[in-house]
Amino acid sequence: MSGNKQDVLWSPIHHDKFIVWGQDITLYEVARLQDIEKRSTYTQLSSTQGATVVASQSGSGVRCVDISAIADHPDPLLALGHNSGRVTLTSLKQTYDPLGLVGREFVAKYPRPCISVAWNCTESSLLAVGMEKHRSDNCILLWDVQSSGLDEYDESSPTPSEPARPLSGVGKGETAHSVAWCGFAPRTIVASMNLKHIKIFDLRENGDKASATASSRLNLGAVCEAGGWRLATRGDAGACVWDARALAAPLLTLAMPRAPRRLLWCPTRRNLLISLQRDSSTLRLHDIQQVHDHQSQEAFDGVSEEAETEPCGRGALERDVWVCGAPLAAFACHPTRRACLLVLTAAGALSEYTVSERVSLSWGAGGALAWAGGGALRRMHPAFYSQVRDVAHVMRERASTDYGLKPDLWQNADLADDEALSGLWHFLALSKSLVEDGCIRNSPWKHPGVRGVLRSPGEGYRSEAAATLLPDLPSRKVTTYRSAERTRALQLCGWGWGWDSAGAGVERAEAEGTPCRAAALAAFHLRLRAALDVLAPVECNCDPTDFEAH
Q1: How far apart are CA 211 and CA 171, in angstroms?
Q2: I need a surface site. Which of 109, 147, 214, 385 has the fewest CB within 10 A?
Q3: Lowest mean pLDDT among 30-39, 79-88, 356-365
Q4: CA-closest candidate to residue 90, choices 158, 3, 151, 148
Q5: Which residues contact 183 (CB under 8 A, 6 or more apart)?
Q6: Which residue spans within 413-537 are E strands per DSSP?
Q7: Positive or negative CA dihedral for 362, 364, 369, 375?
Q8: Where are the domains of the chain?
Q9: 467 by DSSP, 3-state: which?
């Protein structure tokens, strides 16, 4: 292993297992925290999941690693590329090996460092290997692990008369800095070559010629979108997005302040490219938009190489996600869980992060909300609107009951379903009745307000004192003051003057389930026994402030 390189990889078929490799190669198994034994040592990935170490071995001399997609193998099968040029197959956990692949070794004709290895996810027995330059040998070799290779650990096997040969090889006299399988065609790979070119090789064809080539300064690594035609390459100045059908010029250039050290397409969400910049504590998400999948070759003929470093407008929506406070060393996308990332910090800590997608809401003409997220179309349950009391929903519900159109204003109060608004409708109905009954004459308004009701037609307010017997104590008299203004004010409250009018208000308050209000109204009219009779059958659950309010 060169330097202090660290990486993390999910198994493409064992979705609960991943490896971390650096100085050591360690296999982890993920489980829910409640399912992990209490005495076990584990690493907490999130609030619900943790990872336990299954097995580990030394990573000395290992330069690149990839995990196989062979479904018949009980545990992750790893391909290890060494500085010596050897590629060995290993399974960290010592279990049953039904295919006899563990321990097999693949050696190039001329030894030199192995830079990249990549398993084919469709034809799972195929392994592509990228190597450094040798003038007499190919830099990209294709091995079939089930039909070629040497068994390093089988001492009883006879020594072969000639070394195993790869199925095919391309790139003679060149250097392959990275190799990756393409999802748009079988046995097709994309490779970064010689720090100058991006090449696509169809390994089904004989010959060393690439089927497509592009020159680019951003060629330290290349990855292909799963099931699509798009490629992504990285370099010191940023990254580029390409169309594999027309490599004359990139579709999109993504400028970055620091060189990206890792670039991946999200396997569960289309058009999402994720990058990790050097010495960064965040991951950058590139939501590729407004880029056509195919452009005519004529459009590329006149494009110079300098155009690849120019920003391409609003072709991608970018945002940085803060996973943890420490610098990140590597990350990996879960193969099946939507937008789930596993990150590895430079200090060796692990953490799980789920990318929250941008949500585009659709508000229907009927007030219903709907949005797309997580690969599904969702809508808000109707019960939600009644709980949050959204004004648009309330207005629609009221309109459906002819709210505000009733001939009698007090009928609108019953439809309002709001105490304050209901009180306003009652006030309007009562103030209108004052005008219609002739209590207020020569009023310019159909609905006079409080000031118009209390304003005296003459100078000041005139009240008449009158002696009144207490209903509950006939031997005592109290002095009350009457005036036209007082009468109109009481009528606005719905009480009127005298117990005959107020008694109807007490009965109405009891029917509405507000005994405290009914008792306060009776006490205001000096009917203390009536107030006690109202409160007698009621449990003492009233708020004392109700008496102050009424």
Answers
A1: 12
A2: 147
A3: 356-365
A4: 151
A5: 224, 225, 226, 227, 228
A6: 464-469, 477-482
A7: negative
A8: 419-549
A9: strand
